[in-house]
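Subject: Protein record for review, amino acid sequence with backbone structure tokens
Why sent: The fold of this protein is of interest and is recorded here as tokens.
Enclosed: The protein record, placed directly beneath this head.
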Amino acid sequence: MNTIATTALGLAERGLPVLPLRADKRPFGNCRACEDLACGGQPNMATPGPCVCLWPCHGWAAATTDPAVLASPQWTAAWRRARAIGYHPGGAGVTVVDLDDPAAVAWARTTLPPTATVATTRGEHWIYRGTVRSANGVRPGVDLKSLMSYARWLGPGTGTLAELPETVRALAEKAPSPVRPAPRAVAVPAPAGGGQCRHRSPAYLERGIAMAEQRITDATSAIHTTVYRTFLAVLSAHGRCGCLTEAHIGRLFTAAQAKGESPRHCTTAWANATAALGM
């Protein structure tokens, strides 16, 4: 095993979701089975479903701490080809303030509280405890890498992690937000024979949806996988009676989008789960 792979495994053991990067510092491209995210974008599937890809080919969402995944033949082969280590800051509960030039570094030193700092080729990474949505160009030479993003691992750096300052949160809030279409409802058939639906008990259905929301919210890595499996579980339990409403589906989509999923990935994952169950 090469030094990059050994380092990555050590980072994963300490709770940092990692992924291999190519020589151009980008994640590995989709494998043939996942070209254009035809699989729905669920990496590292271990259960039956439309995506059975074990390759690390879904960018930030493939980042993982799972030792079984990291030691799989597909990932082992990818680590042999890797030239750098990437990680998902949001999955580790941190935000990277990427300062891309000396002017940006000077701004940070006069504006932001001291924190863990890592030198980069052209500037510095300032790392804070806490997450925000990722955004590029929040000010000249400054990008934010946290949720739904990856950063290159450049070493532990110096200093101690500080809490994410309001200045950085404000920069993330001011950045243009992507347009989020309303969740798409999927029609499901009523029970065969018109039998009584046990889910008409509000408490039963509410408990199931609440548990699904919590499962998505608690995920720290392999977000695509968690979202798909959760959709699959909800549809398996509640999808054949016709009692799921647009409001229920909207709650699940909202939870997934809060973890960085795009509306397109939510819609595709829901459709794939529906197809997997033959609905």
Q: What stands out?
A: The first strand starts at residue 18 and ends at 21. The chain is about 35% helix and 15% strand. Confidence is low (pLDDT under 50) at residues 43-52, 178-195. The first helix runs from residue 3 to 13.
